[in-house]
C-alpha cells in the first residue's frame, strides 16, 4: 500500500513538473538562424507569474519576464552581426539550451508545388548538385503540412544543417537561393520553407482578408475541393504562417499561382492582399519577391497569360520584385525541372534590391508605358537601360488592337531600349499585348539575358478572344 502511494506521489510530482515547464515553439531550436543586427522576439509558454530568463551567449545579457495570466511570455533580444555558433538559454522552472545558433539572414519560402519541389522529386543536374550541398552555415526549417480554423501557436518542424541528405528533401529553389546569398554575402543563411503543392493563394491569407473583398470572395468561391490539399481561405495561413509571424525574417519568397488560373484576373487583387496581410502580421514591410508562373499548355484559354500579367501588375506594391521564368519553363510540364536558375534569379533580385549589389541583374524588361506614333506604337520598358535584344531573327509574340478591340499579330522591332510595333490592318492602334497565350517561346530580353514579362497595356479595355 505504502509503495503504491509513493508511486502515486512521484507521478503527481512529475505531472506538475511537466505542467510548469517553460517551453518554446519548434521554430526555436538548436541549429537555428536568427536575423542578424536585429531586435528579435523569443516567446513561449510558462506558468502564470513564473519568471523566465533568456540569455544569448553573444553578449551574455539576461532578459527576464514573467508568464502572463494566459501562460505566455516573450522577450526581445538584440542580435549581433553575422556569426556564431552561439547558445541561447531559456530558464524558468526548467532550462532549455539551444546550441549551435547562428546569426545571419533569414528568408521565408512559400507557395505551392514549384516552391516545395525538391531535388529528391527530380531536378536538372541533381547528380552534380546534391553531393556538393555541404554548407554548415546554411540551415533549413521545413514546416509540416497542417490546417486549422484559427491562428495556431506552433508548427511542425525542426532546424537542420545543410548537408547533401537534408538538401535533397528541402525546397530546391530555396536551397539555390540560399547558396547564392551565402556565397555573395559570406553570412549564415536560414531558410524556412512553408509550402504546400496544389494550394491556391486563398489558403495562405487570413479568412478576414478574403471576407472584406468581394473580388477575393468570388475567387475563393470558384475553388473546387481537391484530394491533395485545402482550398478554403485561411486553412494553411492559420496553421503554417500565423505561428511564424513573430519570428524576425529578412524577407519572403513566393512561387504560386498555378492553382489560381481558374480565376486569373482576381490574382491582381489576391497577391497584393496576401503581401499586405503578411506584412501587417509581421509588423514591418519586408521585401517580398516572387516567381511568375511558367508557360504551360493545359491552363484554360489564355488563363496562364492573364495570371502572369496579374502577377506583373502586382509589382505596384512597394518593395516587391518578380522573376520571369518563361525561357526556362516547360510547356508540357507544370513543374519545370530547372530550379537552379530560378533560385539564382531570385538571389540576384534580392542581392540587387535588398542588399545593394547593383551589379546583379534584378529583372528582365517590364512594360512601363506606350506612345502612339501614327500607325505605330512605341513601347517603353524598365530594366532595359542598356538596350533590348532578341534571340531570334524576328521578334515574336506581339499583338496590336485598334479601336474595335480586336488583337492581331504585329510586326515588332527593337529600337534601342524600346520596341516599335505595328500591323498593316490596324490604322489607329490603341492597345498592345505580348506573350498572350498559355504557351510561349520568349523573344524579348534585356542585355543581362533575362526575358521580358507577359503584359497587356492597361489604359484600354480590349476584347479578349
UniProtKB/TrEMBL annotation:
Leader peptide range in chain numbering: 1-21
Domain of life: Bacteria
Taxonomic lineage of the native organism: Bacteria, Pseudomonadati, Bacteroidota, Cytophagia, Cytophagales
A Pfam family: SASA
InterPro entries documented for this protein: Ig-like_fold, SASA, SGNH_hydro_sf, SIAE
Name assigned to this protein: Sialate O-acetylesterase
SUPFAM superfamilies for the chain: SGNH hydrolase
Positions of the Sialate O-acetylesterase domain: 104-350
Organism: Pontibacter saemangeumensis
Keywords: Hydrolase, Signal
